[in-house]
Specification:
Length: about 230
């Protein structure tokens, strides 16, 4: 997931600088196809087609499941017929929307990538920290707050820029700093607790099976019953 999020963030920053006034279709065509080597452009096309097929499969599977759950009868042929009709209707509606709303779908895809990229610091900190309580309560809280601010900027409730800096870039940078600080502080805390533990004294009685055993060097302790 991190390997996917980091290039997406880099592509978004590059597009915000080089194609600030371009439409979504022009942006993706230039960044992923025309400005790349042939093998990179081919990989991008294959990846886009694969993602589209995966999304369509998931949507059709969910649609079939919902239609089957709404049908209360026991006739499997009727349930199969209703599911096929629902799939045909869904395909026609999606085709019509794709003809008249191409830019809106591209904007929705870009917004979904940006929203998913905001989870990158949380995922990165969870991978780097091995503690069960990692990465700390502050990271998911900050991520939820940043996501709420981002959605508010899309709705026009929150300003989309803070001075000369875009709000989404500022949120990404802030979340990354919070995640790094959380990882560093938690590792330092775990290291301090490990160094603060005192080793057991050499003449302390040892336990085996819940019973104290005698120390061979000192001859003290309670003998273990046979």
């Amino acid at each position: 997931m991190i390997a996917i999020m980091l290039p997406v963030v880099a592509i978004g920053i590059y597009g915000a600088v080089e194609y600030a006034g371009a439409t979504s279709r022009e942006f993706w065509a230039n960044v992923l196809l025309y400005e790349q080597a042939d093998i990179v452009a081919a990989a991008a096309v294959v990846g886009l087609l694969t993602a589209a097929m995966s999304t369509a499969d998931s949507q059709l599977f969910a649609l079939g499941t919902e239609v089957r759950s709404l049908y209360r009868g026991d006739n499997e042929d009727t349930a199969l017929l209703l599911t096929r009709l629902a799939v045909v209707v869904f395909g026609v509606v999606a085709f019509v929307f794709s003809l008249f709303s191409g830019d809106q779908f591209a904007l929705l895809a870009v917004a979904s990538f940006r929203g998913t990229a905001m989870l990158g610091p949380l995922v990165l900190s969870a991978v780097l920290v091995r503690s069960r309580r990692a990465p700390g309560a502050e990271v998911p809280v900050a991520t939820a707050l940043a996501l709420a601010l981002f959605l508010g900027s899309l709705a026009g409730i929150v300003p989309s820029t803070v001075g000369p800096v875009r709000l989404d870039l500022l949120l990404l940078g802030s979340l990354a700093l919070i995640a790094v600080a959380s990882v560093v502080m938690r590792r330092r805390g775990n290291g301090g607790r490990a160094r603060g533990q005192r080793p057991a004294p050499a003449d302390a009685p040892r336990r085996a099976g819940g019973h104290e055993t005698a120390d061979s060097s000192s001859g003290t302790g309670t003998p273990r019953p046979s």
